[in-house]
Amino acid sequence: MAARANWKGHLRLSLVSCAVGLYPAVSSSRELKCHTINRETGNRLKQLMVDSVTGDTVDRDDQVKGCEIAKDELVPVEDDELSEIALESTHTINIEAFCKREEVDERYLDKPYYLAAEDKVSREAFAVIRDAMKKKGMAGLGRIVIYKRERVVLLEPYGKGLLATLLRYQDEVRSPTAYFEEMPDGDPTAEMRALAEELIARSTRKFDPSKFEDRYEEALIALVKGKAPKPAKGKGKAKAGTPSSGNVVNLMEALKRSIDSEKGGSPTKARPRKTETKPSTPARKHVSGKTTAGRTRKAA
């Protein structure tokens, strides 16, 4: 495997078990890494763990997890004590139930991982579980202890392996009622709705993640390169993040303008306005039958 596994253990369906590894499916790393530095010296700053009461710096060996049972009352919990209460899911993902993938609310999806067999002996058992899930069109639900916390995990066939997505718990997902209850239902006319539907139809295309880039990251890189002691050649201004929206009279006018801008062009780019070609020489202003350019040459 190219990457290091975040978790290693076993995948089990009833009596069928196999050794598996959990690998990150996404990366949070950026091309440009920024740190907090001293403005005067330019040196990086380091964080120190400080006792909130005494103000003394606490060494790593003296740092321990503390669970709050009341305000300002913490109970220390040692690592060996955590090991004693380790659950089965610490080392084994036991598939407890199956469901249709579309039944899982998107709000519960947290972080995706790839789940793969760890050795040749486990490949056959792994393939049996994977192919059976694919044949039935089902996703599995299990539990896993990762980063010292038990999480529910959704398993679904993905290529030759499984996609394991950590799920949020119900109490972590907020109800939309508080945010949507005061929103008006609206009463769009058939004409406005038809125009909006036409815009959607014109801009519909297959999802391609390569078309989306972090423009802020690009602008930040350009800014940093410009401030570096040896700036790169061909440095230019960063592209604007978002174009100006212009002066829109009302919703109907905005829809009509959007449709007009789409006609004759690509589904994602507005048709440019026609502009007159500027002459290469200065514009001549007629004054008493003579041009200003001519008068300038005479005066010379």
Task: Provide a descriptive summary of the structure in words.
The radius of gyration is 31 Å and the shape is extended. α4 (190-203) runs parallel beside α6 (251-262). The protein has a domain at 9-26 and 66-172: Ku70, Chain: A, Domain 2, CATH 2.40.290. By secondary structure, it is α+β, with helices and mostly antiparallel strands. Mean pLDDT is 81; it is low at 238-248 and 266-300. The longest helix has 17 residues, at 120-136. The strands form 3 sheets. An 8-stranded mixed β-sheet has the order 5-1-2-7-10-9-8-6, covered by helices on one side. Strands 3-4 form a two-stranded antiparallel sheet. It is built from 7 helices and 12 strands.
Features:
eight-stranded mixed beta sheet, extended, Ku70, Chain: A, Domain 2, 25% helix, alpha+beta, two-stranded antiparallel ribbon
* Number of helical regions: 7
CATH class of one domain, anyone?
Mainly Beta
Assign the structural class, choosing from mainly alpha, mainly beta, alpha/beta, alpha+beta, or little secondary structure.
Answer: alpha+beta
* Average pLDDT level: 81
